[in-house]
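Course assignment 3, question 2. Fill in each field.
Student: A.L.
Task: Predict the tertiary structure for the chain below.
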Amino acid sequence: MTSESTSPYLFGDLLALARLSWIGEMARRLETAGHPDYRRSDALVMRLLLRGPVPIGRLGRAAGVTRQAARKLVSGLEQRGYARLERDQRDARELNVVLTDRGVEYALAVADLVLRLNRELARRVDPAHLAAADSVLRAAITDPATLQRASRVPPPS
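Answer field:
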């Protein structure tokens, strides 16, 4: 058995556990607020849709998924009553994802919660440590396209 001091540092495991914790906290708090159906992609997708109608292809690129996977995301939003598809007024070949009234309410709740969780974390951690963590997380992203998407994530409202 290796001692803790000689075992390798498993950053990926810690990162995965932190992500699971964050997602779980999002789901718990949204359920308490009356939104029991949070999905991992909702934090990004709902904040993007708050800006206005988004073509399915662009939604997929923002989420880092294929057009087919984006279509499944949209289908899930439609089934939950959060979005609908509309033809683009300038290009009838293009389908835009549009939030319903219920979707706007949910998207605002998601955006507000992301902001609150970030503020809570910032209160618990020294700003210099947050800056260091940001630097480490960006270094862990090996795909330039993913890093570029991370810099375009819509800020919380």
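Instructor remarks: The CA atoms of residues 64 and 89 lie 26 Å apart. The chain has one domain: 39-151.
Grade: pending
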